[in-house]
Structures are given as C-alpha cells and as structure tokens.
Amino acid sequence: MDGASKMEGFWEFFWFIFVCFAFAAYLSVLFSIITDLFRDRETSGWVKAIWIFLLFVIPFLSALVYVIARGDGMAKRSMAAAHQVKQAQDSYIRDVAGKSPAQQIGDAKALLDSGAITDAEFQAIKTKTLT
C-alpha cells in the first residue's frame, strides 16, 4: 500500500467522522426545534404543523430559518421550562426531607422536657441534626 492510498483512506475516514458528527448535530437541533414547537403555547396548531412539514421536506434550510427567526423565544421557553423543573425538584426535595433542623431539634427538646428521652439522647439527636 503506497502513501497516496493511505492518505486517501485517512481522508475518507475523516470525512465519514465529520458527516456522522454533522448528522448527530442536526438531529440534536431538530429535536430541540420540535420540543420548542410543542412547548410554545402562543403558536397555533397549523403553524406548528407547517413548521414540522418544512423540517422534513426542506430539513437544513427550515431548521436554519427557525433558529434564526425564533431563536430568542426558543431560549426563553427553554429557560422557563428549566426553571419550572428546578422549582418542582426543590419542592419535592423539601417535601421528602421533611422538617427543618430547627423543627427537629424543637421536637427533640419537647421530648426531653416531657421526660421521654434523656439529655444524652437529646444531645445525640441535636448533633446528628446539625451535621
């Protein structure tokens, strides 16, 4: 195998990797656009259908036009969705975590005052809660 055919094989491999990367990038953009279309409550169903039709008929051009024309709104809707997910996650964590450390120590103090636990047990609960 001579040097010219090795270089040709290298460039064919390089071109294959580049095309695969470009296709994966396009799919990522396509899924982002379709997600944004369904997330947008202000756009009518007909306009959404036209965009989806164009995305499959004229894929690269329509994706480029969509990102240029609606990119700002796309970013805002994406940030709003991420903010909503974060709020739901924080709410879930607060619900699952239960009481705050101050509430747990207060409950333990009430148990200590009623005589249900000893001072050593109260200190152990307090130490565990604060760490």
UniProtKB/TrEMBL annotation:
The keyword Transmembrane applies. Keywords: Cell membrane, Membrane, Transmembrane, Transmembrane helix. It is found in: Cell membrane. The chain crosses the membrane at residues 12-34, 46-69. Residues 26-70 form the Cardiolipin synthase N-terminal domain. The keyword S-adenosyl-L-methionine does not apply. It comes from the Bacteria. GO terms for cellular component: plasma membrane. Coiled coil: none annotated. InterPro entries: CLS_N (IPR027379). It is a multi-pass membrane protein. It holds the Pfam family PLDc_N. This is Cardiolipin synthase N-terminal domain-containing protein. It comes from Rhodococcus wratislaviensis NBRC 100605.
